């Protein structure tokens, strides 16, 4: 059975061009073969597949550079022709047929003034299918802008932090800017590629903030099927955590992810190594080592902005040793069930210290599954059926804590030392470990080109009541809840999206709430295929 490369749901730019560009592509392929590219005999060989992917990336990058350079040369020649035709006594020659095989020149053409995009400078109207690029010499920088806006409302008395836990979720009755993301990416050289994603957010009070979601470089051609990444990046835990807002299949993040990994997901500065294992099917091992502090690692060394959590004041501990970092191993594998069905399974763990004590740890484990059916004779990725599920469990070791912070046995008038159980003595909590778990499962059906209907079911709960809850009452942040969310998505083009979603939330001790959200999304500039 022939191995197929994973593809997205039709979100790939077509290569637009004349017959000459097609012939350039063919000529480049022939030259590459003559230069000694070895094509493996077996397409099912995972090692050969990785080599072909790397070769394809290098050839595609070089091809785009040559196209850009050739367009600039053609524009320069056109301007010279227009200048000569404007002089008196010069007779314009009859037009001739275009050359059948343009040959790239080794000399750099005059650089257009302004954006560096030759299509703009030639007077051609720009379209969203044209990448926005800045060029200097032979270096290209791809730029894209993704905006996601939601409007709607909920019957819940508290939306932000109540029914909606995710940092990018719709949080108010009215309008929410979920994300405005600027992406910069490009080939640094034949050895490295760099990516940066900068997001603008507006909170429920209208305050705006900028954050660097990702900013990293990674290798392209290491031996031994290894890939290294360094910088700020999304932690390779499960599937949803590695997706940006515009890649989501639903308006909001799963409740289990927002509660156990944190409202902003799991991401931080660090390094990552990936190894493509030498099997006949795709199998990859990844290990990420990152900082464990801050709100982007809220289940680890996060001080909760000075407020009590789990009835304890958390400290902002410094990383003094290797064990104070966050370690995230992940294994994933994928294979074709049939010519039209592919399955991906994975397992992840995130292990690191938390802020409740000097020796306390948090361990989060997860398993994920993704299945997709797409007929061999699809049109633009439609029709299709996809099923995605994840399950998570968190073990949080909470350190012993005494609210008598100064040791005098008294409660301060300002309430800095609490008497939660009314015994006129400071609250003393022993060391304890409590567990929380959750899962979601979502099904999407692309029933016709541009139209997708989906449904997601999810729940989250605690395994048992913690000691501090038995003393002071249930912690509403750990109470069980479930949600059911059907939605309908329309893609007018690959650059825009409208999504209508209904949420039915059922929270223990609170009851049922209903929410309706309409989401609008646009993508401007260059963007590649989404992760399969």
Describe this entry's structure for a reader.
By secondary structure, the chain is mostly beta strands. The protein has two domains: 19-89 and 110-121, no CATH class; 132-525, Porin (Beta Barrel), CATH 2.40.160.10. The protein has helices at 19-34, 46-85, 118-121, 255-260, 467-472; strands at 132-136, 139-154, 174-189, 192-202, 208-219, 226-234, 267-276, 282-290, 326-338, 341-353, 361-373, 384-398, 401-402, 428-429, 432-448, 451-462, 481-490, 496-507, 511-525. Strands 2-3-4-5-6-7-8-9-10-11-12-15-16-17-18-19 form a 16-stranded antiparallel barrel. A two-stranded antiparallel ribbon has the order 13-14.
User: What's the overall average pLDDT, rounded?
Assistant: 82
| Number of discrete domains | 2
Beta-sheet strand percentage? 35-45%
Distance between the termini: 20 Å
User: Could you name the CATH topology of the largest domain?
Assistant: Porin
Instruction: Give, in spatial order, the strands making up the sheet with the most strands.
Output: 2-3-4-5-6-7-8-9-10-11-12-15-16-17-18-19
User: How would you sum up the global shape?
Assistant: globular
| Helix fraction by DSSP (H/I, runs of at least 4) | 10-25%
Give the number of helices.
5
Oligomeric form: single chain
Indicate the structural class.
Answer: mainly beta
Radius of gyration: 27 Å
Could you give a short account of the major beta sheet? 16 strands, antiparallel, barrel
């Amino acid at each position: 059975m022939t191995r197929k490369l994973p593809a997205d749901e039709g979100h790939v730019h077509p290569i637009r061009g004349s017959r000459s560009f097609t012939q350039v592509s063919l000529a480049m392929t022939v030259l590459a073969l003559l230069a000694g590219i070895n094509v493996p005999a077996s397409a099912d060989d995972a090692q050969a597949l990785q080599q072909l992917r790397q070769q394809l990336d290098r050839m595609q990058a070089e091809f785009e550079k040559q196209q850009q350079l050739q367009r600039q040369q053609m524009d320069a020649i056109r301007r010279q022709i227009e200048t000569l035709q404007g002089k008196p006594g010069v007779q314009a020659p009859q037009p001739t047929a275009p050359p059948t095989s343009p040959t790239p020149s080794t000399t750099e053409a005059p650089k257009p003034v302004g954006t560096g995009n030759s299509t703009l400078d030639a007077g051609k109207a720009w379209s969203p299918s044209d990448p926005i690029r800045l060029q200097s010499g032979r270096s290209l920088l791809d730029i894209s802008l993704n905006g996601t806006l939601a409007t709607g409302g909920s019957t819940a008395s508290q939306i932000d932090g109540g029914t909606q836990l995710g940092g990018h979720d719709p949080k108010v009755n009215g309008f929410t800017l979920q994300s405005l993301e600027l992406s910069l990416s490009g080939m640094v050289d034949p050895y490295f590629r760099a990516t940066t994603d900068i997001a603008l957010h507006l909170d429920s009070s209208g305050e705006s903030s900028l954050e660097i979601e990702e900013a990293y470089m990674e290798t392209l051609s290491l031996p031994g099927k290894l890939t290294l990444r360094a910088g700020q990046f999304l932690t390779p835990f499960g599937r949803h955590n590695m997706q940006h807002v515009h890649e989501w299949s639903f308006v909001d993040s799963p409740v289990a992810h927002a509660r156990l990994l944190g409202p902003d997901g799991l991401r931080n500065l660090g390094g990552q190594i990936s190894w493509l294992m030498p099997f006949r099917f795709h199998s990859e091992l990844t290990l990420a080592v990152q900082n464990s502090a801050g709100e982007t690692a809220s289940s680890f060394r996060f001080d909760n902005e000075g407020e009590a959590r789990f009835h304890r004041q958390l400290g902002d501990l410094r990383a003094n040793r290797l064990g104070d970092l966050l370690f995230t191993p992940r294994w994933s594998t994928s294979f074709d069930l049939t010519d039209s069905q592919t399955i991906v399974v994975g397992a992840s763990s995130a292990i690191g210290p938390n802020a409740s004590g000097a020796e306390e740890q948090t361990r989060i484990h997860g398993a994920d599954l993704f299945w997709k059916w797409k007929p061999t004779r699809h049109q633009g990725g439609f029709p299709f059926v996809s099923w995605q599920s994840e399950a998570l469990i968190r073990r949080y070791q909470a350190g012993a804590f005494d609210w008598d912070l100064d040791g005098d046995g008294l409660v301060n008038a300002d309430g800095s030392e609490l008497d939660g159980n009314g015994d006129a003595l400071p609250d003393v909590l022993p060391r304890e470990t409590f567990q929380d778990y959750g899962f979601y499962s979502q099904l999407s059906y692309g029933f016709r080109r541009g139209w997708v209907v989906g449904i997601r079911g999810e729940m989250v709960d605690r395994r048992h009541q913690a000691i501090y809850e038995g003393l002071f009452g249930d912690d509403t942040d750990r109470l069980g809840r479930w949600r059911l969310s059907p939605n309908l998505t329309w893609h007018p083009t690959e650059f825009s999206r409208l999504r209508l979603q209904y949420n039915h939330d059922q929270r223990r001790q609170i009851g049922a709430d209903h929410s309706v959200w309409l989401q609008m999304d646009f993508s401007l500039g260059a963007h590649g295929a989404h992760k399969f």
